[in-house]
Design brief:
The chain has one domain: Nuclear Transport Factor 2, Chain: A (Roll), CATH 3.10.450.50. The protein is built from 2 helices and 7 strands. It has helices at 5-27, 55-66; strands at 37-44, 52-54, 71-72, 75-84, 87-101, 107-123, 126-140. Strands 1, 2, 3, 4, 5, 6 and 7 form a 7-stranded mixed beta sheet that branches. It is elongated and about 55 Å long. It starts with a helix and ends in an 11-residue tail after the last strand.
Length: 151
């Protein structure tokens, strides 16, 4: 299948959008998420212990949950994109190692492997995610018993 220039452009723009999401999380730049999702986006992180809700509620939860981890790296890859005019679907693999300090000063590490299942729409500001569901794949390591991700 030969892609048109528009389809190539759309795929690059969607990839940039997905990368911008990871930058927002790892830099803890919560306002940047407004350039990733539509205002009414529905997000579902329940498969890995998170919450489901609209963007404002989930942004607040992400800020609280990721505050526990001074070091994170959201690595994405193997993204499949299906374009349909001004709409698209994407399935993107995620590997997310996270680090935090134990009370004794040692570092603790655990990681999540998952897929983001996204529905996207072209808006006047560019491509945005309107619906995201995280599909949990695996967890490496464990959270210490004293550390709970706020719900």
């Amino acid at each position: 299948m030969t892609l048109s220039v528009q389809q190539l452009s759309d795929r690059i723009e969607i990839n940039d959008l997905l990368v911008r999401y990871t930058r927002a999380l790892d830099s803890k730049d919560w306002a940047l998420l407004d350039t990733v999702f539509t205002d009414d986006a529905e997000l579902d992180y329940r498969s890995s212990g998170g919450i489901a809700g609209k963007l404002p509620e989930v942004k607040e939860w992400l800020e609280r949950a990721l505050a526990l981890f001074p070091e994170t790296l959201h690595l994405i890859g193997n993204s499949e994109v299906e374009l349909d005019g001004d709409r698209a679907r994407a399935r993107t693999a995620l590997y997310n190692p996270m680090f935090f300090a134990n009370p004794d000063g040692s570092r603790h590490h655990f990681a999540i492997g998952a897929c983001y299942l996204d529905e996207l729409r072209r808006t006047p500001q560019g491509w945005r995610i309107v619906k995201r569901r995280e599909e949990h794949g695996f967890t490496e390591g464990t959270l210490p018993p004293a550390l709970e991700i706020p719900g």
